[in-house]
């Protein structure tokens, strides 16, 4: 068995904001003390949608790594590296593409969704279609069995599991595995055996998940099978045998969506962000300019906090006592909107203060950052080479 290992990454497409901190980086800081973690600058992934303006990628890489360090990611506990500096990512994606059905890529949850959201871009490219397979290669290259995601992202991990299962089935079978499995099929009877074969073919050739579930149910209901034969047929169905690439499991995490300056999810595309390392004056100005409850047109008008975007930030940054003061003061017009915003300003600045302090040495000497990443890339390549040695051997390819 392989050790528990976590892989996660971010695309360098611009400055990080507090939404990234609350949604991803705080979780990374916790995970690095619990698991072996690799955190990746996913610059090849950035090319899939930003190939027409690579300048934003190049200038964002080092800023993003500094933001990670500022947030508390510790290079002594985690490996920080750049995807494109580990060419084995591309090699494994190529090799996995030999066995991955096209339909698996076309049904990826993010494919049609991104096509619609980014309709202004030309995404009719192999790189964009193959994005989920490159993501699978990223995870499998380090035999990362844990991938931190929110519940809405779990389907994105499924293709990685399917690819690993198929690879192990094709290249990792035990000696005599197929013969033993075929003998077990005969034991379940002609009609059921034929049905099992058909469902197995539909799943492995076409990626038909419904066929997979139907075959599993068929095996569960079949009585005249020994435990060994039953497990063998489950393996034959899904890709049993020697496990060369472990199946990734989603590591469900709470990823709170930090509200932006307009009350929507904080996002660069909405123009409602506060950057991770933004000046105190700019932070104060942005929050003071936030819209409030429309009912409070005048200072003497009463309001309702639930209608106010500022209240959502109070729920993140203000103490219970301050929140109570806001509710009472807003509903009674006892406080004005500028007064109400001040605790949020104070809370954001207090959160950012240690980030500025941690970032300062790296801003003064960028070679420190580049040294951390260079070391991380070497550690990542060592792990990648170990995996590729096994992958190449299994596929009958020589290893340099």
From TrEMBL:
<keyword id="KW-0648">Protein biosynthesis</keyword>
<dbReference type="InterPro" id="IPR050203">
    <property type="entry name" value="Trp-tRNA_synthetase"/>
</dbReference>
<dbReference type="GO" id="GO:0006436">
    <property type="term" value="P:tryptophanyl-tRNA aminoacylation"/>
</dbReference>
<dbReference type="InterPro" id="IPR001412">
    <property type="entry name" value="aa-tRNA-synth_I_CS"/>
</dbReference>
<dbReference type="GO" id="GO:0005524">
    <property type="term" value="F:ATP binding"/>
</dbReference>
<dbReference type="GO" id="GO:0004830">
    <property type="term" value="F:tryptophan-tRNA ligase activity"/>
</dbReference>
<dbReference type="InterPro" id="IPR014729">
    <property type="entry name" value="Rossmann-like_a/b/a_fold"/>
</dbReference>
<keyword id="KW-0030">Aminoacyl-tRNA synthetase</keyword>
<dbReference type="InterPro" id="IPR002306">
    <property type="entry name" value="Trp-tRNA-ligase"/>
</dbReference>
<keyword id="KW-0547">Nucleotide-binding</keyword>
<dbReference type="InterPro" id="IPR002305">
    <property type="entry name" value="aa-tRNA-synth_Ic"/>
</dbReference>
<dbReference type="Pfam" id="PF00579">
    <property type="entry name" value="tRNA-synt_1b"/>
</dbReference>
<dbReference type="GO" id="GO:0005829">
    <property type="term" value="C:cytosol"/>
</dbReference>
<protein>
    <recommendedName>
        <fullName>Tryptophan--tRNA ligase</fullName>
        <ecNumber>6.1.1.2</ecNumber>
    </recommendedName>
</protein>
<comment type="similarity">
    <text>Belongs to the class-I aminoacyl-tRNA synthetase family.</text>
</comment>
<keyword id="KW-0067">ATP-binding</keyword>
<keyword id="KW-0436">Ligase</keyword>
């Amino acid at each position: 068995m392989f050790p528990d290992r976590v892989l996660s990454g971010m695309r360098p497409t611009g400055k990080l904001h507090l939404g990234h901190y609350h949604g991803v980086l705080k979780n990374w800081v916790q995970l690095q003390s619990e698991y072996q973690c690799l955190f990746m600058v996913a610059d090849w992934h950035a090319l899939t949608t930003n190939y027409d303006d690579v300048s934003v990628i190049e200038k964002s890489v080092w800023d993003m790594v500094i933001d990670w360090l500022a947030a508390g990611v510790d290079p002594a506990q985690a490996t920080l590296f750049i995807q494109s500096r580990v060419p084995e990512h591309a090699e494994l994606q190529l090799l996995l593409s030999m066995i991955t059905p096209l339909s698996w890529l076309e049904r990826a949850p993010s494919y049609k969704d991104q096509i619609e959201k980014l309709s202004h871009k030309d995404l009719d490219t192999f790189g964009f279609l193959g994005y989920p397979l490159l993501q699978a290669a990223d995870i499998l290259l380090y035999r990362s069995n844990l991938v931190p995601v929110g519940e809405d992202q779990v389907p994105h991990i499924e293709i990685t599991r399917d690819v690993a299962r198929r690879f192990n089935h094709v290249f990792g079978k035990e000696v005599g595995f197929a013969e033993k499995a075929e003998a077990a099929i005969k034991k379940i009877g002609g009609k059921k055996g034929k049905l099992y074969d058909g469902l197995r073919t539909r799943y492995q050739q076409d990626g038909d998940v419904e066929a997979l579930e139907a075959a599993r149910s068929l095996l569960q209901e079949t009585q005249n099978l020994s435990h060994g034969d039953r497990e063998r047929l489950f393996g034959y169905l899904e890709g049993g045998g020697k496990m060369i690439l472990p199946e990734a499991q989603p590591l469900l995490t709470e990823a709170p969506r930090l509200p932006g300056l307009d009350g929507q999810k904080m996002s660069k595309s909405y123009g409602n962000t506060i950057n991770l390392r933004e000046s105190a004056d700019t932070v104060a100005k942005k929050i003071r300019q936030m819209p409030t409850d429309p009912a409070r047109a005048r200072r003497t008008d009463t309001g309702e906090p639930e209608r106010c975007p500022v209240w959502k930030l109070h729920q993140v940054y203000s103490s219970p006592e301050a929140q109570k003061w806001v509710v009472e003061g807003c509903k009674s017009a006892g406080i004005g909107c500028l007064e109400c915003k001040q605790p949020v300003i104070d809370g954001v600045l207090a959160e950012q203060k240690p980030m500025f302090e941690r970032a300062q040495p790296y801003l003064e000497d960028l070679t420190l950052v580049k040294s951390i990443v260079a070391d991380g890339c070497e550690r990542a390549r060592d792990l990648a080479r170990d995996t590729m040695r096994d992958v190449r051997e299994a596929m009958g390819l020589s290893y340099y």
